[in-house]
Amino acid sequence: MIVGTVEELVTSPEAVLDDLTLSLRRDPRPEGQPVPAHEGRWVGHLRKVAAAKLRHWGLPYLVDDVRIVISELVTNALVHGTGDQVAFRFLLVADVLVLEVDDGSTRHARISTAGDLDEHGRGMFIVSELSTLCGVSPDGTKTWCCFKIPTALRRDA
């Protein structure tokens, strides 16, 4: 996992094909408290939005991995975030899809190794295995990952 920003990955703003940011209201609560059902439903909504966008851009082969990664990133943000909102970003550049979640927490996400019987601790490992690259912003508030898109497999809508 690297420390850096999504903006550092996008070297050419004119290459941006799609840039969507959605902000979700997060009820204040102590870290680790259960996520209210109305907030948890946003995870499924964001998976559906991303799947529709991927199909629109001719990238259906990414749908399954992206759905899993969104589940992990957004759930982590809802459970561990400290801000009153969670911002989700879907950024498609010529040959890279970037997913970014801002949860307001300055604690850096990290990849950990969970034991066989552990119920938690696999999320960022899963993200790192499914994506091409993942990272966290220098201030810790944003966690992101990207998927390399072979030019031959992408079509411009």
Descriptors:
157 residues; alpha+beta
Question: What is the compact description of this entry?
Answer:
With about 160 residues, this protein is an alpha+beta fold.
Structural notes for this entry:
The protein is built from four helices and six strands. By secondary structure, it is α+β, with helices and mostly antiparallel strands. A six-stranded mixed beta sheet has the order 1-5-6-4-3-2, covered by helices on one side. α2 (37-56) packs antiparallel against α3. The N and C termini lie far apart (32 Å).
Principal-axis shape = globular
H-E string? EHEHHEEHEE
Strand order of the largest sheet: 1-5-6-4-3-2
Kindly provide the radius of gyration, computed on alpha-carbon positions and rounded to a whole number of angstroms: 15 Å
Helix content percent band: 25-40%
Largest sheet: 6 strands, mixed
Structural class: alpha+beta
Whole-number mean pLDDT: 84
Count of alpha/pi helices: 4
Q: pLDDT below 50 for ≥5 consecutive residues: which ranges?
A: none
Helix and strand topology:
Blueprint: E1 2-3, H1 6-9, E2 16-25, H2 37-56, H3 63-80, E3 85-93, E4 96-102, H4 123-130, E5 133-136, E6 142-148
